[in-house]
Write a structure and sequence with these properties.
The chain is an alpha+beta fold. It has helices at residues 6-16, 18-39, 52-63, 85-100, 138-150, 161-195, 198-222, 232-260, 265-292, 300-321, 323-331, 341-347, 362-372, 374-389, 410-421, 440-455, 492-510, 523-557, 560-585, 591-594, 606-634, 639-668, 674-706, 715-718, 733-736; strands at 71-78, 105-108, 112-113, 120-126, 154-160, 397-398, 428-434, 470-472, 478-484, 517-522, 602-603. It is 63% helix and 7% strand. Strands 1, 2, 3, 4 and 5 form a five-stranded antiparallel β-sheet that branches. Strands 8-9-7-10 form a four-stranded antiparallel β-sheet, with helices on both faces. A hairpin with a 6-residue loop joins β3 (112-113) and β4. It is elongated, with a radius of gyration of 30 Å.
């Protein structure tokens, strides 16, 4: 009794005391969730998120303690032809009068004509906290709509940070609500098809949702150690649903399989714990290792994502070892009720010769080339995957800019007209200077000269008629200048203007001023600095994940070869996903098909995040499949027959788990923003490739070619766990007879 693995002892206790285990789980989830809400969320500050020179510029600006109120604009343009100056002036006066009556408006500026006279701009300064301006901008938009109704011959639009943020929040809110509404029924539908029974389909979803709830609370508590970001909860939901459903699926399928052989409920749970439960622990540990690698990125966003992901995976593993066996023991054969007639006949576990599960006909047909001609199959499949990965060598990294936001909202359409009429209101570089207070006047003169010099360069926008606007802090130590460029943030000319400003214009302007410190920030700078940061950190994170995963896999399977092949196959899968992303999103051929506008690059944070997520989730399938193969080898089967048994006996559950993930990730690809589209497509495509080509073609080819060498390990690792070379048992002639 004492020598049994802890997974078996936990499962046995839970199965023998189901109500206690279920009650403890409910209390655990409730305490985590309520405790987290009571503690409150500690969100990352701008200083926490500072990366590179642009981050340094943000820190300097923050130290200046500027009063930076939210600003909106009324843009007046003609519907057709040229602008009627008198009518535009009357409309501007009317709009200004309406806006001055609103409590949330601090001041309304004088109308400013564009250089070509084709537009009129009325600046508005909002009162109150700029962080909450988007929540208070609706009364201003209502006043603008009233002015538009009074002057139908003109186009009168409101545009600015708060109105754009409100429109974006509304769009993303609808997107995520739709994604949440779709993901649950999609997951349930796939599980019903996989199990053919409603209760069996509901159990994995129940575990996943409760794991997510507990992890949300724990991550809120953890935010007081590692500050959280806006994306943490979304990633917890994404990862939690994926691994929670996977782990339950592996466990429930094995328990049903053992009951189909005639074992009692407790024995079936115990065997499932010893096999699938062990695989869940190993794969969960592999996912945790992958996510922990994000900590090395030296980025609070990735650190918060790592903490959230680690917590939800740890909770899901714990639930699969405790409350899941309790539920299965309590439900007994009721887990297969109510049955969906046709689906039940297709999915119900059946036994064949010697009490083994009956094998489907589809997977033996898929496996036949890998088992009979492994070398040729391996060369062809790996060649195809490498060809798919090749475009990743040309990957470009950029942050999405304003031009990459959905143009379906009036606020973004107005923004395009605003930047066309007033180029200096579009993309700009933030020049932040810190110097002793007595040098403030000298700094102002230098920055004024810098603005004039830049304005003469076609890479920069002209200076407005009232001259460059230089902000100076109350203590006169910090000065800030916005240097505009007429090009979009992802345009190569915007990047060239940044480098010219950083490398030549700014150092020359400030040369000779004692004690001066400066940095250039802004959207373009942040994109360039973050891409450089990711390129520097990605090799370090990859090395950490690969090294620790190798050690875990070597110790788990007592085989150096299995550990090496698992890492190589996962790298192949990740490379193919990268290549596919570049093919789809850096070109323009898929724009209409997937509903996006190509930004000519991949979102900067995606390659690093995608690598750790894919590497972790791929290990789920790999550990589960290889565990079944090793189980067959240790039972005395030949290597070729063990490979056939392992793949065919696990193919159904791996396919079902993969389809769930692909379905959920594909929903994210339907969201409006380019980063969510790239994340959804990248994850869905990679999981699909991994569960099909990698696991059903490349893996059996490799393991068939290697034969007994699969299980080689140094003497100190072998112990009793090393599979012995024994005569074949229960061969599968239709698959391996010709090998």
């Amino acid at each position: 009794m004492g020598g049994r693995p802890v997974t078996v002892r936990l499962a046995r206790w839970s199965a023998e005391h189901p109500w206690r285990a279920i009650a403890l789980w409910v209390v655990f989830v409730a305490v985590c969730f309520v405790g987290g809400n009571a503690a409150g969320l500690n969100e990352a500050t701008q200083a926490d998120q500072a990366i590179g020179e642009s981050g340094h510029a943000d820190v300097i600006v923050t130290e200046g303690k500027f009063t930076d109120p939210a600003v909106e604009n009324i843009l007046i343009t003609p519907r057709t032809g040229t602008l009627d100056r008198a009518a535009a002036q009357a409309a501007a006066t009317d709009a200004a009068d309406r806006l001055r009556q609103i409590t949330g408006v601090a001041s309304v500026g004088e109308p400013v004509p564009s250089r070509d006279g084709a537009a009129l701009l009325v600046p508005i300064t909002m009162a109150g906290d700029p962080e909450t301006a988007a929540d208070r901008v609706q009364p201003l938009r209502d006043a603008t709509a009233a002015a538009q109704a009074a002057h139908p011959q003109l186009r009168i639009e409101q545009v600015g940070g708060p109105s754009i943020n409100q429109a974006l929040d509304d769009t993303l809110g609808r997107d995520f609500k739709r994604a949440e509404l779709l993901s649950l029924p999609v997951t349930l539908a796939i599980l019903i098809v996989a199990f053919g029974a409603l209760i069996a389909a509901g159990v994995p979803v129940l575990l996943a949702l409760s794991s997510v709830a507990a992890a949300m609370g724990l991550s809120t508590l953890a935010s007081h150690l590692v500050p959280a970001t806006d994306t943490t909860s979304s990633v917890i939901l994404l990862i939690g649903m994926a691994v929670g459903v996977d782990y339950s699926l592996f466990y429930v399928r094995r328990e049903r399989e053992e009951r189909a052989k005639g074992r009692s409920g407790l024995d079936a749970v115990e065997i499932a714990a010893e096999t699938s439960g062990h695989a869940v622990v190993v794969s969960g540990f592999a996912v945790i290792i992958s996510m922990a690698g994000l900590m090395l990125a030296d980025d609070v966003v990735f650190s918060s994502l790592a903490v959230g992901s680690i917590l939800v995976v740890a909770v899901a593993v714990t639930g699969s070892l405790t409350v899941l066996p309790a539920l299965l023991a309590k439900l007994g054969r009721w887990v297969d009720r109510p049955r969906v007639p046709l689906l039940w006949r297709l999915t119900a576990p059946r036994t064949g010769r010697h009490g083994q599960p009956a094998r489907p006909r589809f997977w033996p047909a898929v496996l036949r080339p890998a088992l009979r001609a492994p070398r040729a199959t391996l060369i062809v499949s790996v060649g195809l995957l490498l060809a798919l990965a090749a475009p990743a060598l040309g990957m470009k990294l950029k942050f999405p800019g304003m031009e990459d936001l959905p143009r379906t909202t009036p606020a973004m359409q107005a923004y395009d007209r605003l930047t066309a009429a007033f180029p200096s209101t579009g993309t700009s570089h933030t020049v932040a200077v810190r110097a002793p207070a007595e040098q403030a006047d000298q700094v102002r003169v230098a920055l004024t000269g810098l603005a004039r010099t830049a304005a003469a360069d076609p890479l920069f926008a002209p200076v407005e008629a009232d001259g460059p606007k230089i902000e100076v802090s109350a203590d006169r130590r910090v000065s800030v200048l916005e240097v505009a460029t007429p090009y979009a943030s992802r345009d190569d000319r915007s990047v060239r203007s940044l480098h010219e400003l950083r490398d030549d214009l700014l150092p020359a302007a400030l040369r000779g001023i004692p004690g001066v410190e400066y940095a250039v920030g802004g959207g373009v700078a942040a994109s360039e600095d973050y891409a450089r940061h990711i390129r520097e950190k990605l090799p370090l994170v990859m090395a950490f994940v690969l090294a620790l995963t190798f050690l875990v896999m070597t110790w788990t399977f007592r085989s150096v070869v299995v550990a090496l092949t698992s890492i190589l196959l996962n790298l192949l899968s990740a490379g193919a996903a990268y290549g596919l992303l570049v093919l789809v999103f850096q070109g323009e051929w898929a724009q209409d098909l997937l509903g996006f506008t190509s930004m000519g690059a991949i979102v900067s944070w995606l390659p690093l995040f995608l690598f750790v997520v894919l590497f972790g989730l791929s290990m789920d399938y790999h550990v589960f499949v290889v565990s079944r193969i090793r189980e067959a080898v240790r039972a005395g089967r030949s290597n070729a027959d063990a490979v056939a048994y392992g793949i065919t006996s696990s193919a159904g559950v791996v396919t079902s788990a993969a389809i769930v993930m692909v379905g959920v990730f594909a929903i994210f690809a339907s969201l409006s923003t380019i980063d969510m589209k790239q994340l959804g497509i990248g994850l869905a495509a990679a999981i699909l490739l991994d569960a099909t080509i990698i696991r059903a073609v490349v893996l059996p080819s490799v393991m068939t070619l290697l034969g007994e060498a699969n299980w080689w390990a140094p003497r100190f690792l072998r112990g009793r766990s090393r599979p012995a070379a024994t005569p074949p048992a229960d061969p599968t002639p239709e698959l391996v007879g010709a090998h």
